[in-house]
């Protein structure tokens, strides 16, 4: 093997080793009960894991992933103060037209990149519970892509098992879990703003956020309860019943409002004449229940409005304040 090819293969192998170790470390730290900064560590290490994974891919495909300026026909590479090359960060890797990563997986990673900037100087431990579904997707997506791009031998799922825990989740906890009341305002705002710009199709894709419904189960015979997680066919009677519950749990992730809530919010803002009837007339005039507009969602025959519709209503009230005060 020529020396250049041997060197390129060696660098690619080193990048993959670093990538896998970074992702394994991210998961191990997140599952460690003695670690407080779980989310912060997971985001940083998973970011590094994905970046090295894409560096290895670009190197294998002979795609230049160093920053440079083109002066006539020559490249002048950007360097640090001490002369090292400046390589693409993860976000630049994802936005390149030759990136092998699909749109949904990229959205999951871009969410984590933005979140890293927001939590950099914040102290919060509740974010672990809020966003674990998105962290889970990040892990599954990584394992999928490292196998897809480099082969089954690089898979990391064989090194990890299900994380055990001492706590159980009760109904009261699930109601409070997604209210965002105990997160710093900038983090809660970032999450809501990011989600508002997603289509329903992308938001509900498991590659963006992997949600699992846990149902305590009483076994009827020996051996039946030996597995913590049991998978059942999607078209089975059991699954059809669970899917309704799943929708309810899933939809709690996004803040929603009933018409009476919107009326109360507008009255609090000084628009005393705003009513539920006015909200109805407004959404009909603007065809606001069209799914493409992403103003709300129907959950078991009950319509809920999102934050962006509340903002739309508020803007309407401001423009017509003389009639509504």
Automatic annotation (TrEMBL):
Domain named DUF3644: residues: 14-197
Pfam family, one: DUF3644
Entries under InterPro entries matching the protein: DUF3644
Protein name listed in UniProt: DUF3644 domain-containing protein
């Amino acid at each position: 093997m020529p020396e250049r090819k041997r060197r390129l293969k060696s660098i690619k192998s080193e990048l993959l080793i670093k990538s896998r170790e970074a992702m394994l470390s991210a998961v191990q730290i997140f599952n460690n009960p003695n670690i407080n900064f779980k989310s912060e560590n997971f985001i940083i290490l998973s970011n590094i894991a994905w970046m090295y994974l894409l560096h290895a891919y670009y190197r294998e495909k002979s795609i230049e992933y160093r920053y440079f300026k083109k002066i006539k026909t020559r490249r002048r590479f950007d360097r640090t103060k001490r002369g090292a090359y400046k390589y693409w960060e993860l976000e630049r890797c994802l936005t390149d037209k030759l990136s092998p990563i699909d749109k949904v997986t990229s959205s999951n990673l871009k969410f984590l990149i933005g979140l890293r900037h927001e939590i950099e100087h914040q102290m919060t431990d509740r974010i672990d519970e809020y966003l674990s579904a998105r962290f889970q997707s990040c892990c599954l997506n990584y394992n999928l892509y490292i196998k897809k791009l480099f082969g089954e031998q690089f898979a990391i799922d064989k090194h990890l098992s299900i994380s055990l825990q001492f706590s159980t989740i009760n109904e009261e906890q699930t109601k409070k879990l997604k209210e965002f009341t105990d997160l710093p305002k900038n983090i809660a705002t970032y999450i809501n703003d990011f989600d508002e710009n997603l289509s329903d199709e992308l938001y509900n894709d498991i590659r963006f956020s992997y949600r699992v419904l846990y149902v305590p189960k009483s076994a009827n015979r020996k051996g039946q309860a030996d597995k913590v997680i049991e998978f059942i066919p999607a078209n089975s009677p059991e699954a059809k019943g669970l899917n309704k519950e799943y929708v309810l749990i899933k939809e709690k992730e996004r803040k929603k409002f009933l018409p009476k809530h919107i009326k109360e919010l507008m009255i609090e803002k000084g628009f005393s004449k705003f009513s539920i009837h006015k909200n109805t007339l407004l959404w009909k005039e603007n065809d606001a229940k069209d799914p493409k507009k992403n103003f709300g969602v129907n959950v078991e025959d009950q319509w809920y409005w999102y934050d962006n519709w509340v903002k739309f209503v508020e803007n309407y009230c401001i423009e017509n304040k003389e009639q509504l005060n």
